[in-house]
# Entry
Amino acid sequence: MSSSSRSCAPSDRGAAGARRGGPLGRALAAASAVAILAMPATAWGDGGRIGLPEPVAPAPVRERAPVEPLPSAERWFRLSLGGTPCGWSRETVRPVQDGIETERESHLELGRMGRRVVIRSRSAFRESASGEPISAESERITAGAPVRSGWTFGPDGIEVVQEQGGRRTVERVPAPPPGWLAPAAAERMLRAVATGGGTEARWRSLDPESGPIEVRWVRTRVTAPGRTEPDGTVEWRTSGSLLERPSSEWTGPDGEVRRSRVDLGVGILESRACTAEEARAPLGTAEVMARSFIELRQDGSPLAGARSARLALRARDGELADLPTAGAQRFVRTGPGTGEASIDVGPSRDSDAADAADPRYRAASVMVDGGDPAIRRLAVEALEGAPAGPRERAERLRAFTWRHLSRKDLAQGLASASEAAASRAGDCTEHAVLLAALLRADGIPARIAFGAVWVARAARVRNAYGWHMWTQALVDGSWIDLDATLPDGGAGFDAARLLTGTSAADGASLDADLSRVVNMIGDLEIELIEVDGRPIAPAPDAGDAKGAPR
# Structure
């Protein structure tokens, strides 16, 4: 992010890929990390929902009868991003008293415009010998105290408990429809397909680090049946409903994945099976944020402080996800891989009635803890003498957040609102979650907004859109946009911001929402059509064979 523009510009998977520790699990972990680190274009300066594939039939191995458990095993992987060693992953499957436990631990060191950020995570999933889910837990450390999540499976759904710094939230969510596979059951199925000459596998799973959201996977053999690659492996292509970036995997004769590759938009993430000593050898720092900016081929300076803008959007891979129509933005699809976004800072559009009734936008969560006494005290301080109207109170809280977070920097990964309030430091992510918490503390429904913002300059980057985060508040039946990285005394939002998604930041869902941002990194192209009603000249190569977004 760029202080001059007040923006906040800006993930791997293992054995058989079904558990978070598989190559696709490592890719999901790295995807959310990439999104977090791509977000701070502001320290310098589930709206867009992606449809799931059609339901797939449960895998035939999802038997309820006892099956032979997997042997206890530990595997290590060395991770690299864009050719730079950036981390390691350890995966363990072990028998326990009541069944089988699949555990994964990872360590990533990534760069934010020259700053090194370390992200550590651990997850464990326990299931019965026949594949019935029992419990799951996860822990992530990006800044300050770890965020811990625990799931307990029961006949009436999943109890989700989150804890950080002594704060605890509990919610109950419905379980996915029957037929999804727990990690060890999925690994048995995938090994059977790989060693039995199969060419395709389809399954559904849950990932402790991405929240209780069902993920659908498809794995297809690339190497011709009956043949192997020169190194004796078999190549597979795996794609999932959460991260729309296919992974290539290579399995050995035993069906275990030996290496994998996935394009995260900021570089190729590669994992290779190795020894513990090799995995934990010295690492470099793989730059994420500088690689994530979206180059603008026109002069974007008219966007500074603009009240309205119309943008043409194009996905390089030909598949543009629907963007939200909410707050100041209206999105219209113009083709399978193209669309237009109109941003107007005037009157906001009415929201869906379901939004007003959704308790997630009012409830305290670990990341957006409006119930923290410290947050409540800040809200009272900020609103002393404020008018009674919710719109005026929301703007008062926005300006207060900008003043309270007096140290604008990129040193944090993704701190909670309570941590940001205490440290008084952060980039756009901390500004967004703190403002959301203050709004909820005052009884105003709020959510996190993801997107991109035009920046004139961010280190060596010039005239580009950088990934960003801000806040939306539900006021008088409409979502209004509030960017706490914009200074006190000025406009609280402008048309230099493109909305790509939203999140209630409840439970463990934030990782899943952030992973969807990665689907656009390195793939989205933006062209200005008009700003404040004035047409903008097309980019020099507009209309050629490769084409500008229009």
